[in-house]
Amino acid sequence: MTDSDMPHAARPEAEAVEVSLEFLSRLGQAALDPIIVSDARGCIAYWNDRCTECFGWAREDVLGKRIHDLLIPKRLVPHHLSSFAKSIVIEGPPPKRYVTHALRRDGTEFMVELSIIHMTIGSARFPFCFVRDIDAEKRHEAKLREADDKLAYLARLNAMATMAAALAHEMAQPLGAAQNFLSIALMERDHPAHEALLDCRSALGEAAQSLASIRGLVRKGGAVPDVVALDEVLNDVLRVLSAQSQSHVRFEMGSCAHLVWADRIHVEQVLTNLLRNATEALQSRTDGQVAVTAETQGEQLVVAVDDNGPGIPEERWPTLFEAFRSTKSENMGMGLALSRVLVERCGGRLWIEHKNGSGARFCFTLPRKTIMTAPAGGTS
Ligand SMILES: Nc1ncnc2c1ncn2[C@@H]1O[C@H](COP(=O)(O)OP(=O)(O)OP(=O)(O)O)[C@@H](O)[C@H]1O
Ligand SMILES: [Mg+2]
């Protein structure tokens, strides 16, 4: 039997290792993915060119260095070391495949999928690690998920708008009829429930106006502005809220005697939403306070609604005005989204602002009624 006829196992160990490493080196240079081979101590013994492209380290920088010193984010090192130690003592551990984070030479992290197999060359164990950079793929997936969420959100919004328009349409007729029946009943001046019927008619009137306002929102074009006295609207809103609210909230009204150009119902709905939110945030307190103030800023009036409740963490601010973001079990999360649309329809803006002390502060602007903006023949 010549030397070349001898089976591998019979060759001297050094020669077997050399042949294996030569074989690996050729294979590794042709591979499309990074391949890292370490020794039983976790020091890098082999590093193909794809590794350099992926991690940024040249071969001479890494050979003999420990994997966890260069390629693994610090927080993952303890876990890596313990699972490496476990796998190296097992005889012939099964191949392992998993997704984790890796570290580039410039310190940036990226996602990789690893496939690890232990090979015995001669009498030594070498864990082989095949690396796949899946960072771009994962980011693409996250973007797709985000787009899916956005689409689902828009679909819900659309369904909501359709439902609101249908409701506004369907309710208009019975509401009108109920108002007419009440008017007939009210002709009888000494009716025993005359006062209650009057209240009933005015409540129905408000409901009909709100529905008309919703229909107006769905129609194209902006709101038709009218001169609105802010303090009058605020008084109406506070009267209704105080009647509804069981809590101990104290409402304060600052200098709100200003005239603005707006749709009265829109302003009423915005104030109602903001004040109701503040009241709901103060439900469990006995010293709850809500203050409404207004100040002029050039052509604009800035209205602020302040409360001394728990406030809203700043990380929630970017999505606060999106629909369906409620933290309340009974609510839909439409108030702020709708309010922003209503204010913008009137030519203003609505935002949340930092405030001194605890609580939330919402502000919105409306165009002031000045001599400049008064329509021809109008009074200022
Ligand atoms: N003044 C406030 N204090 C604390 N949290 C608030 C305040 N205003 C709004 N929020 C938070 O913002 C979320 C969204 O408010 P929004 O008015 O849009 O919806 P909602 O009040 O939950 O439901 P809806 O208004 O449809 O009844 C609330 O669920 C609440 O978590
Ligand atoms: Mg609300």
TrEMBL record:
Domain of life: Bacteria
Domain PAS: 20-74
Family matches, as InterPro entries: HATPase_C_sf (IPR036890), HATPase_dom (IPR003594), His_kinase_dom (IPR005467), PAS (IPR000014), PAS-like_dom_sf (IPR035965), PAS_fold (IPR013767), Sig_transdc_His_kin-like_C (IPR004358)
Catalytic activity field: ATP + protein L-histidine = ADP + protein N-phospho-L-histidine
Domain annotation Histidine kinase: ranges: 166-370
SUPFAM superfamilies found in the cross-reference section: ATPase domain of HSP90 chaperone/DNA topoisomerase II/histidine kinase, PYP-like sensor domain (PAS domain)
Endpoints of the signal sequence: none
Pfam families documented for this protein: HATPase_c, PAS
Annotated SMART domains: HATPase_c, PAS
MF-aspect GO terms: ATP binding
ATP-binding in keyword set: yes
Assigned keywords, A-Z: ATP-binding, Kinase, Nucleotide-binding, Phosphoprotein, Transferase, Two-component regulatory system
Enzymatic class: transferase
EC number(s) on file: 2.7.13.3
PANTHER family the UniProt entry points to: SENSOR HISTIDINE KINASE, TWO-COMPONENT SENSOR PPRA
Designated name of the protein: histidine kinase
Protein species of origin: Sphingomonas kaistensis
